[in-house]
């Protein structure tokens, strides 16, 4: 990479997202947080008060802005927070140095999320939160941690299922339906085609047009190489 390419790599990549979709995503995210906090107030308290965990706000961005993202699906959301909470609790209890505990907690959380196929970035914030506020949470005990994580993730997922499926053009969770294979021997997509397709998706796609074109080109090359190596397939 030369100097010019390095400088250009810092440019802002803007996706063709309509203003109405941006406003709608912001509004429903705010409503979801409000409803989450409102619901938690009425949950039964078993010797400890439940509260919102700050990392759930980051999950809200995924659930209501990019609900099609693999990291926003139910298992990554639930498992990501659950395993990260476990990592944060264990490291906070067993490592005295808070800085070392923080690094270990985030690292362990990522390993667990990868191992159990539930990678969810806000989960790492849950692990860090439990380490940074270990002194406070230690008095509440593991039962509070379990209750808080279950309450926050459970209600957030219920709201995602309800709100996203009530909005026109949205579906949650992501649905995988088999599609016929596109014959590309005499068809070549252009960047304009990718840009137009992005405008037809109701939500934010967290990749750039350049990324999609690169993926498309790599997929075509792989398909052609496979066909060349296995002419009968």
TrEMBL record:
<keyword id="KW-0812">Transmembrane</keyword>
<feature type="domain" description="HPP transmembrane region">
    <location>
        <begin position="17"/>
        <end position="173"/>
    </location>
</feature>
<dbReference type="InterPro" id="IPR007065">
    <property type="entry name" value="HPP"/>
</dbReference>
<dbReference type="Pfam" id="PF04982">
    <property type="entry name" value="TM_HPP"/>
</dbReference>
<feature type="transmembrane region" description="Helical">
    <location>
        <begin position="75"/>
        <end position="92"/>
    </location>
</feature>
<dbReference type="InterPro" id="IPR058581">
    <property type="entry name" value="TM_HPP"/>
</dbReference>
<feature type="transmembrane region" description="Helical">
    <location>
        <begin position="99"/>
        <end position="122"/>
    </location>
</feature>
<protein>
    <recommendedName>
        <fullName>HPP transmembrane region domain-containing protein</fullName>
    </recommendedName>
</protein>
<keyword id="KW-0472">Membrane</keyword>
<feature type="transmembrane region" description="Helical">
    <location>
        <begin position="23"/>
        <end position="43"/>
    </location>
</feature>
<keyword id="KW-1133">Transmembrane helix</keyword>
<feature type="transmembrane region" description="Helical">
    <location>
        <begin position="142"/>
        <end position="167"/>
    </location>
</feature>
């Amino acid at each position: 990479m030369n100097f010019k390419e390095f400088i250009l790599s810092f440019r802002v990549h803007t996706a063709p997202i309509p203003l109405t979709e941006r406003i709608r995503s912001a509004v429903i995210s705010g409503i979801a947080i409000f409803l989450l906090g409102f619901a938690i107030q009425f949950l039964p308290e078993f010797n400890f008060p439940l509260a919102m965990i700050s990392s759930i706000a980051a999950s809200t961005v995924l659930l209501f802005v990019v609900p099609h993202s693999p990291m926003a699906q139910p298992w990554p959301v639930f498992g990501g927070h659950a395993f990260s909470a476990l990592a944060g609790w264990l490291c906070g209890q067993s490592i005295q140095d808070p800085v070392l505990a923080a690094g270990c907690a985030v690292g362990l959380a990522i390993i667990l999320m990868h191992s159990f196929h539930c990678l969810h970035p806000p989960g790492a914030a849950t692990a860090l939160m439990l380490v940074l506020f270990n002194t406070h949470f230690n008095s509440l005990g593991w039962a509070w941690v379990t209750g808080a994580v279950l309450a926050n993730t459970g209600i957030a997922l219920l709201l995602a299922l309800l709100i996203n499926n009530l909005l026109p053009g949205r579906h949650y969770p992501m649905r995988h339906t088999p599609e016929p294979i596109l014959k590309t021997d005499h068809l070549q997509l252009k960047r304009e085609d990718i840009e137009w397709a992005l405008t037809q998706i109701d939500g934010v796609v967290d990749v750039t047009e350049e990324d999609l074109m690169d993926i498309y080109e790599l997929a075509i090359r792989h398909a052609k190489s496979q066909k060349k190596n296995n002419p009968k397939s």
